[in-house]
């Protein structure tokens, strides 16, 4: 019973962060599964993909209703990441637990540092559609990198997808946030397709409540973002993320 309560609490916090920040909350799913719920690193990255895919798909419907999803651009961007996501998903099951943990900690620390940087004026406002010339090579590279990251580490990558969609495809900020949910959902499902072996061993008594609470938390996060300063939310989340990354690295070393 205590495990289910922990799963619900962790899922609610992560969903809240995802809904409030438009991305990044799923980065905490893996360490929460490992250190709070006792899941192995390989199983945690697989469970995280399930949670991320379900949460983003649910949030995607709301953004689509508001007209904030650019389907053509999102699907093209996601298509570049499907192959790397498949390869990453297959590779993850063969990597040592310590390698996965260290890699995840490095990515989490990088995401935290990015969040602590003051956003540029263009990122805050978003770019007028078509203001940034789309370079197919850069778009494909960005999509492929995001797909590979999703496949190996089980993170959604929304904290990377949003700035990439703004800077590379020239989307407005709201459209970038909504379209990133489409990209992350596609990449997560592709990565899961290569993890059938590890998915069979998932503890659905933990993963189910975690995902359900994350979906509900994401809806509350959207309302929270309207009441609190975005800078305050980003800084608080980044500091938590840095602490988690440091703890994971220390755990591997010690």
Automatic annotation (TrEMBL):
The chain crosses the membrane at residues 39-62, 74-92, 145-169, 175-194, 232-250. InterPro entries: TM_pro_TauE-like (IPR002781), TSUP/Inactive_protease-like (IPR051598). It is found in: Cell membrane; Membrane. The keyword Magnesium does not apply. It is a multi-pass membrane protein. The keyword Transmembrane helix applies. Keywords: Cell membrane, Membrane, Transmembrane, Transmembrane helix. Belongs to the 4-toluene sulfonate uptake permease (TSUP) (TC 2.A.102) family. This is Probable membrane transporter protein. The lineage of its organism: Bacteria, Bacillati, Actinomycetota, Actinomycetes, Kitasatosporales.
